[in-house]
Amino acid sequence: MTASALRALLASGRVTHVPGVYDPVTAALAVAAGHKAVHLSGAAVSATMLGRPDLGFVHATQIADRASTLVPGLRGVPLLADADTGYGNPLHAVWTGLAYSRAGISGLHLEDQVSPKRCGHLAGKEVIEIGLAAAKIKALAEQVPQLAVIARTDAYAVNGLADTIERCVAYAEAGADAVFPEGVQEIGELAALHKALPGVPLVVNRSEAAANPPAWTDADLAQVGVRLVLHPVAALLAAMRAASVTYRAIAESGSADQVERMPWAAFTALVGQDEALDLDARYVPSRLQT
């Protein structure tokens, strides 16, 4: 899949909310809900694949492998994936981009933390030299043009707004399709970024890992250049809560009857059971059917 659909959302002039998905079923649910783009986070893959925190346990190959299983269920809806720090230097970032493209990913976001990184909402982060970070963006933009490239900077928590703006300008000049100023939440600071980067789309994070993110309206965000709002782990946390309640009910009462669940018929429809059972009608010429 090309990056055209994702780039179109970035150029649309309006805010698009992008929920996290982490397997084929959640991908299908997001599409059924009408979402125009979805997100695959490293935290979600690390948790669901390895049961580990978002501290560098997963690599590009594992993100790409997970993406390849859920892209078919997206039915053309673009997938934006977490590319961490690119997993090394500019050459490694290009390799990551090519692996993501082969997996059907439409775009990635690449951050400028020192590798191995710390989770975006933990203290003690460090950022790499601005030239090296820009070189990774430039290499990706030039050598993997089939991917939309979103440049994330974690400089705000380390050096403040001025350095964040300087880095975002450099990354946009290096070829990023959008910039992602992690940690910048106040509308006035987003407006300052927008003023310094006219015409460059902004991406913001609404992760539950952040403390009390402000509830700006989409109109507020659109006015300061925000085009994508990521919700990377909302569905995962909701699913974990539902599973926890269900397991506790079974342990305590021997039944999950009191827990609200998706009907079995809805589940089988979601995963295409009827279509899978009707292979003759779909693929075998009628004269050969028995």
Automatic annotation (TrEMBL):
It comes from the Bacteria. SUPFAM superfamilies: Phosphoenolpyruvate/pyruvate domain. Gene3D superfamilies: Phosphoenolpyruvate-binding domains. Keywords: Lyase. GO terms for molecular function: oxo-acid-lyase activity. Pfam families: PEP_mutase. This is Methylisocitrate lyase. It comes from Actinoplanes regularis.
